[in-house]
Amino acid sequence: MKATIFDRSGSPQFFIEDETFYDLSGQPVAFLDDENIVKFSGYHAGWLRDGYVRDSTGGAVGFIEGAKGGPPLPKIINSPILTVGRPAPIAPMLKTWTKPPVFGNKWASRTLNQFFRGRLL
After folding, report:
1. Which of 16, 37, 54, 108 is the most buried (most CB within 10 A)?
2. What sign has the CA pseudo-torsion 64, 2, 32, 83?
3. Residue 16 · residue 29 · CB < 8 Å
């Protein structure tokens, strides 16, 4: 599966291919283990469920086209030409595991970039 991941404004920010998340330059940022999003540091970051990228609070931080069961989707601004992702590091052992919260119909307070980059802007 190769899909663009959009932020809450409908702007393309990341993509997923072969269970690895990449920024638009092709740099790997996280991987998918079942529906769990895990950073290459080994820490659990959130979930990809029903097309929504969810953070630890259960709020949506992004989505792929066709997402269902979450907050209203914005109009997609444009879909980029997806680059080829660089080789991803070997997936580490998971250091933390978070039980899923109740997934709601709200956008999270942090941005998609903050979610994948692990910092506040």
Report:
1. 54
2. negative
3. no
- Compute the distance between CA of residue 116 and CA of residue 112 in angstroms, rounded to an integer: 6
* DSSP, residue by residue, 58-71: S-EEEE-TT--SSS
CA distance 92 to 77: 35
47 in Cβ contact with 104 (< 8 Å): no
Residue 120 has pLDDT above 50, yes or no: no
- Determine the Cα–Cα distance for residues 118 and 7; give it in Å rounded to an integer: 15
Q: What's the CA gap between 118 and 42, in Å, rounded?
A: 13
Could you state, in order of their start, the residue ranges of all structural domains in the chain?
A: 2-117
pLDDT tens, residue by residue, 52-80: 999 989 999 999 999 999 999 999 987 76
E strand intervals along 1-121: 2-6, 12-17, 20-23, 28-33, 36-39, 44-49, 52-54, 60-63
